[in-house]
């Protein structure tokens, strides 16, 4: 019980409840003005922010009331409810990075393993879509490159939701699948790899500026799933950022200019992530640690044969019931990631 009380006090000390209440009141005052509603998109975002703040304040006030009950010896609040609430709010304490509250852009690339790997990339794509769906987040496809026989070579999609980037950013890395292959008659055991990249979905106020002279543009016709031509004009775009070698493709929008602006937005997100990773690498180097980026950074194994096991190689967290995990049940893995990186 003393441990739980200490955890509650820590949450309340760091939550800045008074500031949140002031922010709520400020939005409510703004919403009383007629001009607030003239920009529908901005007002919708503000009202969504208000709803989230009110929800968080309600939870924090419940913890305050529980502490008061403990002090006066009047225990009316369900202890299990408090324990679950503390576990939930503790996660939010880990989401303090500069871009953690942003949306995210997720890319899934098939790796070694041919058709099997492309099918694995497709399974990962579905896993993340299901996770986002369970969070109530909005997802939208940006780019899609189908596999020759099955699955996907690459897919890029955006995720809009509070703390989407903060919760998903540590999913970046190589994911390994071991299973009996459904693509050969002998059903041989097959190992496949896919790379997941997660970058913040930045807004117009980004501090990073991109020089147009540093970009090479390529314009082409959008292609749908299966390779059919969707447009008769070159609306899809591909950019290459010459200083970093970053390549971004986008064919979601119907106009070339919209795809161009979205590609730039993705580029800025990748540059933000690169900046964040560089800072983290420098900090780890000072501590004598080294992390191999990109394809060398295998983070999780999914074994479906000869036994069932999903294991995160960083946190050591594992689950033997693999179907719920592949259906988007990533909460425990993500919680373990946040706790793991908070200790570094």
Computed structural class: alpha+beta
Helix content: 40-55%
Order of helices and strands: HHHHEHEEHEEEEEHEEEHH
- Average of the residue pLDDT scores: 86
Q: Unreliable stretches, pLDDT < 50, 5 or more residues? A: 225-231
Compute the gyration radius: what is it?
23 Å
Count of β-strands: 11
Q: Give the count of helical stretches.
A: 9
What distance lies between the first and last C-alpha atoms, to the nearest angstrom?
Answer: 28 Å
**Beta-strand content bin:** 15-25%
> What's the main sheet like?
8 strands, mixed
Strand order of the largest sheet: 2-3-1-5-4-9-10-11
General description of the model:
This protein has 344 residues and is an alpha+beta fold. The protein has helices spanning 2-15, 17-31, 40-72, 79-93, 114-135, 164-168, 256-286, 322-326, 331-343; strands at residues 103-110, 138-146, 152-160, 173-180, 189-201, 215-220, 236-241, 246-250, 298-303, 309-312, 318-319. The protein has an eight-stranded mixed sheet with strand order 2-3-1-5-4-9-10-11. A three-stranded antiparallel sheet has the order 6-7-8, with helices on one face. A hairpin with a 4-residue loop joins strand 7 (236-241) and strand 8. The longest helix has 33 residues, at 40-72. Residues 225-231 have low confidence and may be disordered.
